[in-house]
Amino acid sequence: MSENDYLLKLENVKLSFKEQGGKYRKIIAAADFAVYKEEFFVLLGPSGCGKTSILRIIAGLQEPTSGRILMENQSIEGPSRDRAMVFQGYTSFPWLTVLENVEFGMRLYMKEENKIRERALYYLEIVGLAEHREKFPNELSGGMKQRVAIARTLAVSPKVLLMDEPFGALDAQTRWLMQELLQEISRKEKITVVFVTHDVEEAVYLADRIYISTVIPSRCFKIVSVPFKSRDVQLKNNEEFRQLEDEVVLSLRQAVFSKGGE
Ligand SMILES: Nc1ncnc2c1ncn2[C@@H]1O[C@H](COP(=O)(O)OP(=O)(O)OP(=O)(O)O)[C@@H](O)[C@H]1O
Ligand SMILES: [Mg+2]
């Protein structure tokens, strides 16, 4: 792959927060990575190392202390629907139906009612919620709510989908189903994903590459490439899959005990 195949690039991004008393605390010593077009890029690292902050910086919701973020070689300034985020919590509007929730984002920039409806139904079909379109979020299970969030986010055709532990609150069974669904959608729709998780199995199953972060002040400990071509669920029982999972767990342990940067 060449430089031109990058969709997103972080160059020497640093982040510090001012603490009570006026002293600065360095959270990110350096985030320096590029994400290829159509890549599934997973951020893995100890709690508090700045993973959510990296997503917020890419989304344009948090300004870095220094460094550059490039999207297709253009510096990004502030939020845009090019970079849409799915949060960990359930973030649908409770007073709108499933269908209206999915249509909401499109209404901000699209005019034609029939196009909006058509796209919303298309994405509801993809996430398997078409028949639940008239329900309200409080009538849905956790997995279904996250599927609404995914449909709503995909409907605005972002160039990159930012996902912050989107399945963290789900039970193991639902989580597996959601992982399977997400990997099918992301490959079929050719979307670029930056995905945060704590779960090593989830990371290995979904990722093309895994970015492992050190503790704060954080920097890259290692980037692991995942070689599997097919992502059948049976992959998780495969010997090579388990070996790679063990390697990633080991790297994560080393990353936790390694010192962050300055
Ligand atoms: N707005 C803010 N003001 C001050 N400190 C902040 C702010 N946002 C985040 N932090 C601090 O920055 C650090 C990194 O937070 P962040 O949420 O990015 O970590 P994380 O890697 O996503 O953690 P987790 O895995 O627990 O979700 C934490 O120590 C947090 O307290
Ligand atoms: Mg977080």
Describe the protein's architecture and organization.
This protein is an alpha/beta fold and 262 residues long. The protein has a domain at 1-82 and 158-166 and 192-262: P-loop containing nucleotide triphosphate hydrolases (Rossmann fold), CATH 3.40.50. Helix content is 34%, strand content 24%. It has seven helices and ten strands. The strands form two sheets. A six-stranded mixed β-sheet has the order 6-7-8-3-9-10, sandwiched between helices. Strands 2-1-4-5 form a four-stranded antiparallel β-sheet, covered by helices on one side. Helix 2 packs across helix 3, helix 2 (98-107) runs parallel beside helix 4 and helix 6 (200-206) packs across helix 7. The structure holds adenosine-5'-triphosphate and magnesium ion (MG).
Structural class: alpha/beta
**Can you give the mean pLDDT?**
92
Terminal-residue CA separation: 31 Å
Order of helix and strand elements from N to C terminus: EEEHEEEHHHEHEHEEH
The neighbouring-strand order within the major sheet is: 6-7-8-3-9-10
- According to DSSP, the number of beta strands is 10
The CATH homologous superfamily of the domain at 1-82 and 158-166 and 192-262 = P-loop containing nucleotide triphosphate hydrolases
Q: Per the principal axes of the C-alpha atoms, what is the gross shape?
A: globular
- Taken as a percent bin, the fraction of beta residues is 15-25%
CATH architecture designation of the domain at 1-82 and 158-166 and 192-262: 3-Layer(aba) Sandwich
Assign a percent range to the helix content.
Answer: 25-40%
Radius of gyration (CA) equals 19 Å
CATH topology annotation of the domain at 1-82 and 158-166 and 192-262: Rossmann fold
| CATH class term of the domain at 1-82 and 158-166 and 192-262 | Alpha Beta
Largest sheet: 6 strands, mixed
Determine the oligomeric state from the structure: single chain
Number of helices, where a helix is a run of at least 4 consecutive DSSP H or I residues: 7
Low-confidence stretches: none
